[in-house]
Amino acid sequence: MSISANDPTRKTWLQVPENSDFPIQNIPFGVFLTRDDIITIGSRIGDTAIDLGALHQLGYFEGIPLTDDIFLQDTLNDFISDGKKTWRLVRNRIAEVFDANNAKLRDNEEHRQVVLFGLDEIEMQLPVQVGDYTDFYSSKEHATNVGTMFRDPENALLPNWLHIPVGYHGRSSSIIPSGIPVHRPQGQTKAKDADEPVFGPSQRVDFELEMAFITTDANHLGEPIPIDEAEDYIFGLVLFNDWSARDIQTWEYVPLGPFLAKNFASSISPWIVTLDALEPFRVESPKPVKKLLPYLQSSGKKSFDINLEVFVQPENGEETRVSKSNFRYMYWNMSQQLAHHTVNGCPVLSGDMMGSGTISGPTPDSYGSMLELSWKGEKPVKLKDGSERKFIEDNDTVIMRGYCQNGYRIGFGEVSTKLLPVFEPKKK
Ligand code: MN
After folding, report:
1. Does one domain contain both 173 and 292?
2. 426 in a structural domain
3. Do 266 and 164 belong together in one domain?
4. Which of 89, 124, 159 is the last residue of a domain?
5. pLDDT higher for 398 or 34?
6. Once rounded to an integer, what is the mean pLDDT over residues 210-219?
7. What is the domain-level CATH number for residue 230?
8. Last residue of a domain, one of 101, 124, 147
């Protein structure tokens, strides 16, 4: 089935600001609370939010096999379970309804009143109930930088890294949408020259510039997903800030990997941009250095050209861009990650989230974490107000943005999160 929603020549009757991340060719999916405090599944064109529940009740999805309440839910999980064919039909239909030449909704004031909202009238929610969250470690530049800093520059990549998309299981309970602030975590740390650990606020709170993909029900227990089918089970992507406490991580991570350093919060952009919408921005993945085992050999363009940026904004201050990277730098692509994740028969379900791992590029201004940008604190990063950062300070806001551009622009909006001081229990 063709993706008519991607037609680059289509214009909409809605107002779309110039350079918007959300032209009519995007049509992302999200969940929001309306001005009447009703939760609904929606989409967005320009700065207009579209209530898909209302649109469905008014009959605009006639002819597409959807249950009556599919959009009247507080998560996208059931819609995602309906599968790729349905996602495509729905996106194509939304494109038709908002096409400049289609008068049906355009000229129906009463319908427009219940379907359309300004962004200031809605509150974005977490788009899916995340059953399981896995975080990969798939940027070669990032893994090399971290290996160089913490182990041995001569053997920066561990022997398995070029053969396996390395990952770990994270916690879904602390995945939060953009705008929800995060407290500086406390935990155990041990200074290099100290004999014993101490407890207290992390002194090295960091962001990780990542993207995450969201899956549909993919396989049953025991059944691997072949690499060439993996993309059929990927609904879409979001920006993903995987908050990290580097000092806690350094002390705790041997032998089983990161634990409390990583699971206090991960922030996501609230609109899921579908894999279909990203279709025009496909690029080749980097060439494998080692010959891969057959189940990881992927062919064709399985990566995507997505520009990524990170900004740090001090309280009441201006934003400074601290990093500019690209999703295409990922050594392991999403198909390889999903094929590897399921090769042992591990089931993947609707709403599962897979983090890419920190996306660092080849140059020092493209590194995806403060750990690398400040080279573990040795080279502080200058902000526009003259202050310096080795890591993230209390009341700083970290903002990540991402977009594709090639003739037209498909973007992700942003994930913006303020770091609050350590949590203080209220005095009774
Ligand atoms: Mn991570």
Report:
1. yes
2. no
3. yes
4. 124
5. 398
6. 97
7. 3.90.850.10
8. 124
Give the least confident one: 29-38, 88-97, 183-192, 222-231.
29-38
- The whole-angstrom separation of Cα 402 and Cα 410 is 9
Query: If you measure from the C-alpha of residue 358 to the centroid of ligand 1, how many angstroms do you get, rounded to a whole number?
Result: 6
- 296 lies in the same domain as 196: yes
Our measurement of the distance from residue 400's CA atom to the centroid of its chain's CA atoms, rounded to an integer in Å, reads: 10
Q: Which helix (DSSP H) or strand (DSSP E) does residue 251 occupy? A: helix 246-252
Mean pLDDT of 297-317: 97
Distance 250 CA to ligand 1 centre (A): 14
CB-CB neighbours of 358 under 10 Å: 29
Q: Which two tokens stand for residue 51?
A: 């209530």
pLDDT band at 27 (very low <50, low <70, confident <90, very high): very high
The domain in which residue 104 lies consists of 4-124
CA of 241 to the centre of ligand 1 (A): 8
* Dist. CA 315 → ligand 1 center (Å): 25
Q: How far is the CA of 74 from the centre of ligand 1 (A)?
A: 27
Instruction: Give the distance (Å) from ligand 1 centre to CA of residue 238.
Output: 14
Catalytic residue numbers? 142
Is omega for the bond preceding 255 within 30 degrees of 0, making it cis?
A: yes
Output the domain CATH number for residue 70: 2.30.30.230
Residue whose C-alpha is closest to residue 21's, from 425, 308, 413: 413
The pair of three-digit structure tokens given for residue 128, joined into one six-digit string:
């899916």
Single pTM value for the model: 0.97
Tell me, what's the pLDDT at 376?
93
Residue 343 lies in a domain: yes
Average pLDDT over residues 271-288: 97
Provide the domain count of the chain.
2
pLDDT, residue 207, reads 98
* Structure-token match 């990927």, residue found: 234
- In angstroms, the CA 56 to CA 44 distance is 15
